[in-house]
Backbone:
């Protein structure tokens, strides 16, 4: 064991920060770079300026965190986050935004199990496990506190200044691309997923003392139901993320709705969901807000259709075979 330790390679903390920055920038950001090439549309100087500025900023952050007993855990954590995020962005094209973090927080074991594939295990082993073990193995040279702070400043200050100069010199092109394509920076690892997780955490924290405003407290049963001689039962089936483009009722070539066609149902073609995730689309369907005015905060601040029906004296029962009602039926 002593011989093994003596053969451990040594590296300075600044050099390790630089290597880690290059690794994160080049090997865990395929989705970011592919989208950047498309979004900047041959504005190569602006795109490269943004990339270099991001690299310099990342290097500055890692260098500022390169303290003994802190540096290795931080680098390993960032690499694991970037590797996991890059798998899902590269494989499925998803964006790890606040909504996606929310989906992950409320998912079930059954749903998550479908994502635990051999491809994910191989990707994590190559892009997270191996580099993490290397970081844990190498011996990092650290200076004394004040000397380290001075040397780190000599690297961090010029890096941040150069980053600012690059952004300023190409501000028009960079600002245009980021304004028109807001998903680009969310794809940048590890900053994008970490930022999304922080935003989700802050949003959840804000909702701790949320006061739900009543809605439709004066609702009553209509005359037809009130005078019915026997109980009236209405079944609403919510398929909130169905793709309208794949419905034969909407003109799709394959016959995907044969049973519905025989029933002579009314098909509303011009209908749009608030999102592609259950945690977004389902609450929106039952809220009082139209799609353009909907937000998660508004939905949680107000009662919904289930509450209104309850106020009217209607007995409502919620059944699901997915991940719950997303707060809709929490009366």
Residues:
């Amino acid at each position: 064991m002593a011989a093994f330790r003596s053969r451990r390679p040594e590296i300075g903390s600044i050099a390790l920060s630089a290597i880690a920055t290059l690794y994160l920038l080049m090997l865990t950001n395929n989705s970011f770079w592919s989208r950047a090439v498309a979004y900047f549309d041959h504005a190569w100087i602006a795109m490269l300026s943004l990339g270099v500025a991001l690299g310099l900023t990342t290097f500055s952050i890692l260098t500022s965190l390169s303290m003994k007993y802190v540096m290795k855990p931080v680098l390993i954590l960032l690499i694991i986050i970037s590797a996991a995020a890059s798998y899902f962005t590269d494989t499925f094209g998803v964006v790890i935004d606040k909504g996606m973090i929310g989906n992950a927080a409320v998912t079930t074991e059954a749903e998550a199990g479908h994502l635990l594939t051999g491809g994910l295990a191989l990707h994590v082993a190559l892009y997270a496990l191996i580099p993490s073990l290397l970081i844990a193995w190498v011996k990092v040279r650290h200076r004394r506190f004040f000397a380290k702070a001075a040397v780190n400043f000599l690297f961090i200050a010029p890096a941040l200044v150069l980053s600012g100069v690059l952004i300023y010199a190409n501000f028009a092109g960079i600002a245009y691309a980021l304004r028109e394509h807001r998903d680009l920076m969310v794809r940048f690892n590890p900053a994008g997923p970490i930022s999304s997780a922080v935003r989700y955490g802050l949003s959840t924290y804000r909702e701790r003392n949320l006061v739900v405003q009543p809605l439709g407290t004066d609702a009553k049963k209509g005359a037809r139901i009130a005078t019915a001689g026997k109980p009236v039962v209405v079944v609403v089936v919510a398929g909130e993320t169905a793709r309208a483009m794949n419905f034969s009722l909407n003109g799709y070539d394959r016959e995907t709705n044969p049973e519905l066609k025989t029933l002579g149902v009314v098909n509303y073609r011009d209908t749009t969901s608030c999102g592609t995730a259950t945690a977004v689309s389902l609450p929106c369907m039952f809220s009082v807000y139209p799609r353009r005015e909907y937000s998660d905060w508004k939905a949680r601040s107000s009662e919904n259709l289930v509450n209104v029906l309850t106020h009217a004296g209607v007995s409502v029962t919620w059944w699901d075979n997915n991940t719950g009602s997303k707060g809709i039926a929490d009366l």
Observations:
- The beta strands are 10-12, 139-141.
- The mean pLDDT is 90.
- The CA atoms of residues 41 and 177 lie 9 Å apart.
- The longest strand covers residues 10-12.
